[in-house]
Amino acid sequence: MKNYQVIIGTFLVLFTTQIKSFAQKGQNNALLRKWEMIEMHIEGSTISEEMLERQRQSSVKTVMEFRSGGVCYLYIYTQKGRILKKNKWQLSEDQGKLTIQPEEGPAQSFDIVKISSKKMTLSIKDGNDTQLFTYRSVKE
Fold first, then answer.
1. How far is residue 77's CA from residue 66's CA, in Å, rounded to a whole number?
2. Which of 87, 116, 120, 133 could link 72 by a cystine bridge, Cβ 3.0 to 4.6 Å?
């Protein structure tokens, strides 16, 4: 009977470890792509997808690209051209936080509200206000 319990216990430990490993790889895989901002909520105001679409038609948009190895590029497109900023990114051990470290300045840690291969929502506390940023994956 004890051997049976040891076998079941070992199986459960291995199974739990594998599930956690697959979940972490899933978060990483979902993140590794280009993301275009489609909505944001700041200080009680919402900049909707429609408003951002009008800006995109005027060649104004923000795109983040997450690559393996912890590299993240921020592309800011304006009517005057493109600004490129190279950053580093890291997921927390529990996969619930995304930290972005710019080459200059302090790191920012975002809570991952939702992430899939098509859509991502991040939040960050700013004083008493919670800011939300929603992105959709893009192919360029």
1. 17
2. 87
pLDDT band at 118 (very low <50, low <70, confident <90, very high): very high
- Burial tier of 64 (Cβ tally within 10 Å: 0-12, 13-18, 19+): buried
**Dihedrals phi, psi of 32, to nearest 5 degrees:** -75, 85
What is the spatial distance between Cα 49 and Cα 84, in angstroms, rounded to a whole number?
23
Q: Give the list of residues 6+ apart from residue 120 with CB closer than 8 angstroms, or none.
A: 30, 31, 35, 112, 114, 134, 135, 136, 137
Mean pLDDT of the chain: 77
pLDDT at position 140: 61
Q: Return the amino acid letter for 55.
A: Q
Instruction: Give CA angle at 40 (39, 46), nearest 5°.
Output: 100
Output phi, psi for 13, to 5 deg.
-65, -50
139, pLDDT greater than 70: yes
Between CA 13 and CA 28 the distance in angstroms is 23
Any residues with CB less than 8 A from the CB of 8 and at least 6 apart, and which?
none
